[in-house]
Amino acid sequence: MTAIPGPLQSMVFRSEDLPALFHHTDAIAIARQREAVNTTRGQLFLLVVGAVPAGQPGDRRGGGAFKNLAGNGAVGADGGVVTTDSPYPPQAKSHWQLNRSAAEFIKSMCWRYAVHGSPFDTGTQHPEAVFANRLEEGLQELRKVGWVDPRDEMGDAGGGLITESMRELRSRAFTVRKETYIRDRLIEQRRWYRRRQHVSRRGALVWSSAIAALTTPALALSLLQAFGAARSFALTGALSAAAAACLAWNEMRRHHPLISAHSLVEKDLESMQAAMETSLTERQWPVAVFETERIVSPEHTDWLARHRM
Q1: Enclosing domain of residue 200
Q2: Engineered SS bond to 262: which of 2, 190, 193, 237, CB 3.0-4.6 Å?
Q3: How many CB atoms lie within 10 A of CB 137?
Q4: What DSSP character marks residue 18?
Q5: Residue among 210, 200, 219, 208 at smallest CA distance from 259
Q6: Cα 233 vs. chain centroid, distance in angstroms?
Q7: Mean pLDDT of 252-256
């Protein structure tokens, strides 16, 4: 944390000022996400490769070239089946989601503590003890559904749950805490959701275009084959399999629902920012911070993506 020159010595609070437990959990979430995404990508690629020889017409199955092609296709299909049946991919996805939830929960609790958000408002007795208890209660709920607490492996490197920067920000005047929270938390989150909207829009456009580009010729070839005007069975099967793989990838990345979900969250944060910068009083501040943290939680975004599309 650094101080910005000025009459109130405004503070800058960044992710680096959060405890080691957050950084360790965040790193695990990123690694497991990469593993889950790469595994799914590999499965879809192998299934597409395996579809090519499967679509060959019967009178072309016999030459050595086809046997090699069929062998490679069988390997691709078997590889897709093996990786699909393996317990590792769902474990990677589950660990990714649980660690992401844990990391965001820890970050949210740290911010609430540092700026006097509910339940750590100014009148709270022994706020550090309350913080530790509330944090452990939340992490215990995650442990019940499979989250692995990394602190046993971290040892002394885990450090404390409350950093000096968190204590420093908590000790500042209300105006400083409000300015720091709005600038370094709320506005940063608005920017993040806005960036994710752009990323999702680009992804949806790219994969929707790819699906259309693959489906159209596959449909045309199927019609020609139906009327005996074409025999490109392998090409039709490959195009159809590739289109299905693109569709599965697009669904896995959830581009379309996340566009709307991120847009709604960004608009809610815009409203919260306007209220915090104008009419919000110090008495109303703890509840406003609590509500802001609820809005940016992964669970809230996921609920919007599932139920408001």
Answers
A1: 174-309
A2: 193
A3: 9
A4: S
A5: 200
A6: 39
A7: 85
